[in-house]
Amino acid sequence: MTPDGRTQEVADVDPDSSSELARQRQDSSAQPSEQGPLRITGTATIPPPAAIGTDPQAKPALSVRLEQLRAFYGSAEQVKGIDLEFRANEVTAIIGPSGCGKSTMVRCINRMHEEIPGARAEGRVLLEDLDVYDPSVDVVAVRRAVGMVFQKPNPFPTMSIFDNVAAGLRLSSRRGGDMRAKVEAALRSAGLWDEVADRLDQPGAGLSGGQQQRLCIARSLAVDPEVILMDEPCSALDPIATLKIEELIDQLKQRVTIVIVTHNMQQAARVADRTAFMLGGELVEIGPTQEIFTKPNDSRTEDYVTGKFG
Amino acid sequence: MSAHGSSVDGSELGQLARFAVSPARRRKDRIARGSILAGTVIALIPLVLIVYYLLRKGLGAWSTSFFTTDPTGNTFFGGSNIGGIKSAILGTIEIVALASAIAVPIGIGVAIWLVEYGKGSWFAQTVRFFVDVLTGVPSIVFGLFVYIVLVVGTGSTYAGYKGSIALSLLMLPVVIRSAEVILLLVPAALRESALALGAPRWRVIFNIVLPTALPGMITGVLLAVARAAGETAPLLFTAAATLKTNFNLGGFMNSLPVQIYKDVTSPTTAVVNRAWGAALTLVVMILLLNLIARLIARRSRLA
User: Fold this and answer.
1) Chain A within 8 Å of B198 (Cβ-Cβ)?
2) Do B207 and A171 touch (CB under 8 A)?
3) Which of A29, A142, B18, B252 would staple B242 via disulfide (CB 3.0–4.6 Å)?
4) Of A117, A157, A170, the CB nearest to B301
5) What percent of chain B has pLDDT over 90?
6) How many CA atoms lie within 13 A of A273 on its CB side?
């Protein structure tokens, strides 16, 4: 498989990165049996270009449905009754001006909202058919199924690169299996393996901002979630690092459902299958990204995406 | 252009004068700087004098036998054979070690509760208030409390461990407050990202928060230990004083501060000199602890 991958890379003269992505995806799905070489350690073996969506044991991505979701800080209502569906294996972008409740809404999905003192949520968040706010639901289990990537890259400062990725597994008491293989697979999925393979024992905080953010993505992937929430994952990164994360998002959606909050409308246009526009704690509209940006139904959406306000 | 060049002695000087420092401001600046410097020097004088007298008088008392023999209690005959301070050094180490073993786990436990669970609740606020009150309590009050409860109250007598309890009460608020401050410095984003990985809260505390805060907490703990090691009052009527080296915390126990206190009131010159030697020893021990604390703090990733 190594020469195969190389030949293609040499043969491929098309500089368009999106077609390269498409090629990589074809590559990996066409050769599902190549999951094996992933376990080979060291850098000598060149892996399948994208080690994603090929794991036969991978759990299917889950859809997320919000039903009349309301979120409060004390008595202030920040999210005012939202009905919205995030489809499985799709990237949904959430745009809207600052303070419109994007982040709050997303944090309700993995129940991180309630970690803030005085904060609470009402309504239902359905993971396929399971209401994560049902009293019988273990919040810890919800967060294992719904990963999260934050605005600022925040690798654990006391841990090495390896330990950062392993942290999710260790912290949730799932030490079983080959930890090294799992860490490697997660780092490969986050497109970071080739850059850090020879320094796994060095502190995660020593990486560049973009690498740190991909390390955080690897960390959340290691727990094998079905949904990943990204809260402005690129706002602290430069354009090149941003591009890498966006390519990564494009690959990851084969495996997980992705909800990405962004202030950057170009980013939403680049990565999202569907885009939702929020204003003042309410959902204005949601639709295919193309439509939201070219012929939105609501005039407020049009004003926002054309830069009249916000 | 040419007007610019020709105006050198005229308007340009006027321009410069606009930006010149006025003599009045220069004067005020000198006075302000001078008084700050004077204050610093005045504050340094007693410090330097303490170190000077400690070294001059203390080093004279130091010798090998000074550290390796117990005091004999024989203070007459010009103090020819008064002995050293071995029992006091070992007693201080034993008492403070037990006091730390009591105060540090409890103190850090309270701090974790305050930061991670209690937060702004009324009970946490009440605890914080009483911890602050405890910080301001004079050390002799802790000694009295333990004397009344454990010495008089039990109808028994003095013991090393009772001194340790008095010291641990003294250390407790210092440990709680310093650990709380350090735990608050751990970025909330770290807790959030660990929680978002699906980690239970106790694991977030033990695997993420505590390792991150550890260097800072060690600094706080060592400073509390250093403070306790120098206390006389809580030990006077709890651990009392004795001559012999004692490894049984249930018995009377000597300690450096108490030895200094007893020696310095002696009429015999050699015994007073021994107090200086013991004082220097105590200062060096505490200095070493502080140095260790600083070294660890330098490695800290916070603060």
Assistant:
1) yes
2) yes
3) B252
4) A157
5) 48
6) 16
**ipTM more than 0.85?**
no
| Structural domain includes residue B197 | yes
Q: Does the residue B183 lie in any domain?
A: yes
pTM summary value: 0.76
Q: Which domain holds residue B215?
A: 77-299
User: Are both B55 and B129 inside the same structural domain?
Assistant: no
Residue among B192, B190, B177 at smallest CA distance from B115? B177
- If asked whether residues B33 and B178 sit together in one domain, one would say no
Distance of CA A57 to the CA centre of its chain: 20
Closest-approach residue (CA) in chain B for A220? B197
pLDDT at B49 over 90: yes
Q: Report pLDDT for A15.
A: 42
3-state secondary structure of A268: helix
What's the gap in Å between the CA of B295 and the closest CA on chain A? 18
For testing contact with chain A, the best of B116, B191, B193 (most A CBs within 10 A): B193
Radius of gyration of chain A (CA): 20
CA distances from B253 to A282, A288, B169 (A): 72, 80, 18
**Closest residue to A112, CB basis, from B119, B190, B196:** B196
- A228 and chain B in contact, CB less than 8 A: no
- Residue B275 in any domain: the answer is yes
Angle at A19 between CA A15 and CA A24, to 5 degrees: 110
The pLDDT > 90 percentage for chain A reads 50
> Alpha-carbon distance B293 to B218, whole Å?
7
Contacts of A163 in chain B (CB under 8 A): none
- Rounded to whole angstroms, the Cα distance separating B150 from B142 reads 12
Number of separate domains in chain B? 2
